[in-house]
Amino acid sequence: MAEVKSDVKVKVANPQDASIDAATQMMIRRAQSLGIDTCFDRNVTLKPCNIGNQGTCCKNCGMGPCRLPLTKDYDEANDTRKGICGATANTIAARNFIRMIAGGAAAHSDHGRNVAEVFLTAARKESEAYQIKDFKKLLEIAPYFNVATTVEKDGAVLDRDLDEIALEVGEKALEEWGKPEGELHYLKRAPKPLYDTWKKAGVLPRNIDREIVEIMHRTHMGVDQDYKNLMKQGTRAALADGWGGSMMATDLQDVLFGTPYPLTSEANLGVLKEDHVNIVIHGHEPVLSEMIVAMAQKPELVAYAKSKGAKGIQLSGICCTANEILQRHGVPLCGTFLQQELAVITGAVDAMVVDVQCIFQNLANVAKCFHTKLITTHPIARMEQDNVIHIEFDEHHAIEDAERIVRMAIDNFTNRGSDVIIPRQKSPIVAGFGVESIEYHLGGTFRGTYYTLNDNIINGRIRGIGAVVGCNNARVKHNEGHIAVVKELIKNDVIVLTTGCNGIACAMEGLLTPESAKVFCGPGLAEVCETVGIPPVLHMGSCVDNSRILLAATEVVKAGGLGTTISDLPAAGSAPEWMSEKAISIGQYVVASGVYTVFGAVFPTTGAPVFQRYLFEEMEKMYGGMWDFEADPVKHAWKMINHIDAKRKALGIDQARERVMMDFADRQALEA
Ligand code: BF8
Ligand code: SF4
């Protein structure tokens, strides 16, 4: 019998190398001292496959996997790599890439579909829990679905009944997933030249489900074997996400739960409270968490918590569910994607409630080491471990389901061990931005559009707009890329719009406060932020809320003076630490909307240089936007800034900025 070496030590992460965040480092250390592994440790022991990470491993049929890594003597002109069927590296990488788009578009859009279904339940008045909250927004979106908001009666034009409008919007919205003819309604919201570009390229999505299904068909063994044609379908599905499923998710959520407006809150593990019942909500869909927010405030349940010796109920969130309930209710952010296990490791979480997407299966193993109840709630997202409790959420019994979950957490409070350690780190934040609130803060008094924002871009105080979004990735130091990219941008007068885990990272770092402008921004951006009273980094919400960024960019185009389409704007996109397939779908719809977009961490097409060049160069000729990759965060930011400067030059507003900078230097000279 082989002897087991007793002195074999499992390799673990060095907390200092794993994250820039002190609270995160502290909890990694704690986990290690308790012998509980986290993603940070697994990153050390589990090396990525060197062929898969190049995007050139195909397992789309039973003759594979066919692995086509780049060889040392790779010669592009004589690349003879091929799979059993003859598929080239370009074909394989393109198939894998658009399958990622299919996964991402499916995740966002299925979320949107669930929201549309709940919306319809509300419109039909079948649910006590959900009622339409924001009629103004309902009236705004109705025309895009060709739903009339007025009726003619005896020659007079009258307002149409709101319930009728809601019902028709709900039905029309739901049809977007499977209608047999036509194209998605929301595509018409894009600037006209952009819509025309899509039309010319033949990528107008027909319906959401069809575009995703067609990716699965085309990437099946022996179907589409032309990387350009594959990417055409990838683009179509990605647009169905950004200007379809995601945009409808955002809008219908706003109509149901309220459009976000700026509010204050806090972020990082320090939001957990030792003397409160802690409920952490994690995942993406706000449909259930909205109810939990309501239940956690219910006096009867607060009293119940007190009867168990707690001072109250502390809700907080992880990932994009967190962003959703932060934006609308100010519920604090407990942490990013990579901090999910660490929240449980505090020993203070009485219940973690998860819905869909970005949920580690290892949460169940960590929860087992503490008293934490891990509750899955979605029929499509369950876990195999036997300590996981499944309370299936149903919009028809939403209040009862949410109350049951909150009571379960309260009952569990008394089971807590004496071993609670909560890091003290938390940062104050201002969040809740959106198309409407940017207009409010940066619109013109008379023009009411994005006039002031445009004006400040034209006069050079604001150099441009950076949309920095996306995940954490355990393969790179947690939050390092996010924060370095954002700081470099605002230091150079680029205002940042953020969503997803980048938003949470910026929140933890204190960049979501108006006060941070003075500390971190260049003189022009600092002046604007101080005058208007906004942070230099505007938190726009969850990942489906990237649709807000598309619409904000559209508003900037409409306000005038900065070109006629999104690709004319001095703007760039970034996902410094992406990992999710959703990020690839977002990247592609943003690129196809005309935005130069840089990804950090890794890029999944490096094994197919020709195909990668198509994404990095050719895309721009087609859509005005293109992909790029840069792992070094400062270089990454400068690629964006250089692009912004080139766009300023093309618009003829580069001189203005030089004048502003001179003014500042003059002012400094005067002050000295
Ligand atoms: O939808 S940013 S890690 S939480 S995938 Fe996941 Fe990425 Fe976070 Fe949000 Ni978005
Ligand atoms: Fe190999 Fe072609 Fe099958 Fe892919 S589809 S596994 S490349 S034989």
Coarse structural class = alpha/beta
Q: Roughly what is the average pLDDT, rounded to an integer?
A: 95
Strand order of the largest sheet: 8-7-6-9-10-11
Uncertain runs = none
Shape call: globular
Q: What kind of sheet is the major sheet?
A: 6 strands, parallel
Describe this structure in words.
The chain is α/β, with parallel strands linked by helices and 672 residues long. The chain has 26 helices and 18 strands. The strands form five sheets. A six-stranded parallel sheet has the order 8-7-6-9-10-11, sandwiched between helices. Helix 23 links the parallel strand 16 and strand 17. The protein is globular, with a radius of gyration of 25 Å. The model has no long low-confidence stretch (mean pLDDT 95). Residues 58-61, 63-66, 83-85, 87, 92, 221 line the site of iron/sulfur cluster. The site of FE(4)-NI(1)-S(5) CLUSTER with Oxygen (BF8) has 13 residues, from helix 12 and helix 19.
Please describe the topology of this protein.
Elements: H1 15-18, H2 22-33, H3 39-45, E1 57-58, E2 66-67, H4 89-123, H5 135-141, E3 150-153, E4 156-159, H6 162-175, H7 192-201, H8 208-218, H9 227-257, E5 263-267, E6 277-282, H10 286-297, H11 299-307, E7 313-318, H12 319-329, E8 333-335, H13 340-345, E9 351-354, H14 362-368, E10 373-376, E11 388-390, H15 398-413, E12 427-431, H16 435-442, H17 451-458, E13 464-468, H18 480-491, E14 494-498, H19 500-508, H20 516-520, H21 523-532, E15 537-539, H22 546-559, E16 571-575, H23 581-592, E17 596-599, H24 609-623, E18 627-629, H25 633-651, H26 654-671
Bound molecules: FE(4)-NI(1)-S(5) CLUSTER with Oxygen and iron/sulfur cluster.
